[in-house]
Amino acid sequence: MPVYRIGNRDIEYTLRRSAKAKKASLSLTPQSFELLVPQGASDEQIGAVLDRRRGWIIQTMQHMEERAKAQTRVYQFVTGAKIPYRGRMTRLTIDPFDGSLVEVSFRNGFQIRKPADLSPESSDAIIESALRLWLKRRVRDDARDFVRKHGERHGLKPRGVGIKDQKHMWGSCGQDRQINLNWHLIFAPKPVLEYAVVHEMCHLKHRNHQSEFWDFVGRVLPDWEGRKAWLDKNEHLLGWEKVKAVR
To answer: Which residues pair with 38 in a beta bridge?
Structure first.
């Protein structure tokens, strides 16, 4: 993986070449960034792009690192731990039982039953996996409900709804009319998820973000701007980071 040096810091980045790219573009995460360049870009041209955007890279990475520090940290999936869910921090209750699989339900908080013979070493990973699966199913069911709510009324009929673990986007609408959504939207308030679904549905009619697209979003969801603003402001809070406790 190539490295871009800023001061004493080496920052790894992913270099992608594309025959369709007409100019270079950057996308960043707190750990690294991706540089997309035209197919025939030379090493000198790539270096020039990075040097030209150096200030922006520094500023943006610092901003994203600060936002990442605010993300929920989970040290153990035990009773009393909390994770975000629909815009609120929600408590976990873990109870052992005689079954063989972890069971997840929700009633004023997450009720999780785990096999009594589950070893402490594997408990965390298995509970986290079951919880992720439950959350992905819930966001899929909610998204399908919103498609039914808005689709027929506005002549919007996607081929299907998929739930993905997308790194740089909240959703997408393919040329095949398939809508994909980032499962982390389950951590946002339900009206924000509804906005994300409507946004992608509207791309079935308008494939860009020109004024006609936003006008159409407004006809489907008149208060979309407030919902989008919440997502833009709080996107770094949608999820959790599993960290090891320091002993």
So the answer is: 18
Encoding tokens for residue 214? 């936003």
CA separation (Å) from 42 to 17, 23, 47, 208? 11, 13, 9, 31
Q: How far apart are CA 162 and CA 130, in angstroms?
A: 19
Extract the tokens encoding 220. 């489907």
pLDDT at 115 > cutoff 90: yes
Classify 162 as helix, strand or coil. Answer: strand
Q: What is the DSSP letter of 62?
A: H
Tokens for 167?
Answer: 């790194």
pTM across the whole model: 0.74
User: How big is the chain by its Cα radius of gyration, in Å?
Assistant: 21
The confidence band for 84, taking pLDDT boundaries of 50, 70 and 90, is very high
188 close to 88: Cβ distance less than 8 angstroms: no
CB 7 within 8 A of CB 54: no
Residue 151 has pLDDT above 80, yes or no: yes
- Helix axis angle, 224-234 to 211-220, nearest 10°: 110
CB 237 within 8 A of CB 70: yes
User: Which regions of 70-221 does DSSP assign to beta strands (E)?
Assistant: 72-74, 82-85, 88-97, 103-106, 110-115, 160-164, 171-173, 178-182
